[in-house]
């Protein structure tokens, strides 16, 4: 089991790039394995927003070991070729520690900015964008003619450090099946439960049903891949370490191999959460 933290890139001191980079350093020192940021540009979460990619660059310079990434990036709000360059550059800056959490996006972050498309096409556009990312990271010269994206005679170098590609984890709402079928084709899944609040989490039974469905969509080789990330978007107690260890073990039994602690202003300011982060993750037997 690996343990990560996910924090907003918005709202109050969560948008303070200096504080976030320092907290990421403290998280690494405390034994966490990953540090992830939300990817918002401005909506109901508040007006204080910092760009997650610039924040990740600052974090990469303050850490040496932890995996870094977004949880999750709305793919259809960004041009795939620009995103490919940004993430590949961060993979080099971090010496091969980047992970892309990807989702289809939507909501007032789209409509308020008059972004093109609608909920019926976001998934289709996302699928094209992911294929483009993977192809561009290959370092080969490519052309692509899709319904939503087209490029001609393009080569992206340098390749990312991680090959054959930077890991792509797909976010989606369970029990919706379409995002889980998408997740089955990539490198991991980070599901959230329908109707589950910011200080709640899916039960082990719900998680197992989600993972079982994903495995049913995979080849035996894919389903048995130990590197495939099965993420629990979790909530630890932070006070009773025995309880936390038992809780995580219950999720490990249903296949979770990455616990990502969901931190937000609903649980306090980032300054207030620093002592919790410094405790480090639970110690499992």
TrEMBL record:
Coiled coil: none annotated. GO terms for biological process: alkanesulfonate catabolic process. The keyword Nuclease does not apply. GO terms for molecular function: alkanesulfonate monooxygenase activity. Residues 1-176 form the Luciferase-like domain. Keywords: Flavoprotein, FMN, Monooxygenase, Oxidoreductase. It comes from the Bacteria. It holds the Pfam family Bac_luciferase. SUPFAM superfamilies: Bacterial luciferase-like. This is Luciferase-like protein.
